[in-house]
Amino acid sequence: MRAYQDFREFLSVLEQQKQLLRITDPIKLEPDMAAASAAATKLGNRSPALMFNNIAGYQNAQIVTNVHGSWANHALALGMDPETGVRDQFLEFVRRYRMFPGQLERVTSAPWQEVVIDKDINLFEILPLFRWNQGDGGFFIDKPCVISRDPDDWNNDDVENVGVYRLQVKDKNHLGIQTVPQHDIALQLAHAEARGEDLPVAIALGNEPIITLMGATPMLYTQLEYKMAAVMQGQPYRVVQNAKGLDIPYGSEVVLEGRILARKRQPEGPFGEFPGYYSGCHQYPLIEIDRMLHRKDPIYESVYVGRPWTELDYLQALTTSAPIFDQINATFPEVQAVNALYTHGLVLIVSTKVRYGGFAKAVGLRVLSTPHGLGYAKVIIVVDADVDPFDLNQVMWAMSVRVNPAGDVLMMPNLAENLLDPACQPSGMVTKMIIDATMPVPPDTRGDYGEILETPMGTDTWLQKLEALTKELQK
Question: What's this model's pTM, rounded to 2 decimal places?
Answer without folding.
Answer: 0.91
